[in-house]
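Q: Here's a chain of 328 amino acids. Please give me its 3D structure as tokens.
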Amino acid sequence: MSVDNDAKERIAFHSNQIKLIKNEISKLVVGQEYMIDRLLVSLICDSHVLLEGVPGLAKTLSVTSLAAVLSTGFKRIQFTPDLLPSDLLGTMIYNQKSGDFSIKKGPLFSNIILADEINRAPAKVQSALLEAMQEKQISIGDTTFPLSRPYMVLATQNPIDQEGTYPLPEAQVDRFLMKLNISYPSKQEELAIIDIQTKISDKPDLNPIASEADILEMNKLLDSVFIDDSLKEYVVDLVRATRKSSDYGLALDNLINFGASPRAIIALIKAAKAFAIISGRDWVSPEDLDAVVYDVLRHRIILSYEALAQRITVEEIISEILKKVKLV
């Protein structure tokens, strides 16, 4: 079960480093531990996150704060209906003097990309993201450029203001490791927000904690985290139950049009391993899976019209599956 001592030491080192990152971010971001933890899970997995919540819940602030404590490249892109694919990818520029074309790279050529209000851009712009998110490369003209690692797209969207928005295609949504539903802070947290955010001239600067090399080592450590075969089988059963629930004694088939793909299995395993690293462990516990299962599955289950008519939520579907499918 155990891994070698060197890997254990590296996991302990990076677990402590993550605590320092969270402490640094807390200088500006009050509460939202749920969101910060999962952004760090995404960082360890070198994957992407979709953040959904009403305006003013520190989604953008959390992402920019995370970027500030990492010694990596960072670009923020405000998505609008008039955005073009070349605004993200870059374009070919003709030089009249030399008669040659040169390539001007777009903002996607960075490490951490904040895609603010991603659902405000049309389908052509969304499709421009797919190659970068999945293959970690960008094609401009006849040239394909590999993207530097780590590479994360952290996208925000507003669930209530739907005027002038475009639903994200399922193929793109599936590329996100997790979809987070961001909720309001508590009363005590809102009182603390007043103290931090109303100081016009005395806002703290955030110090870099982790380098690119640190992040890449965290990525590699995922292979050193042990997960028991029984947990692997449990994950497979959870995902398969979203496709044919009747095989697991559930009557949900008429409520689900499409269940989660095998990519959800991979995402659940990787996210659970990342949670173990954050906790300083070299093995995955059932609690690690419980912590991420809703975030990994909620955007990968497509509800039927019947479910929508009955106002049944994806979270309720996942909850029913968790009650029935048990770890053996």
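Q: Can you summarize the key feature?
A: The domain at 5-82+108-197+208-217 is CATH 3.40.50.300 (Rossmann fold).
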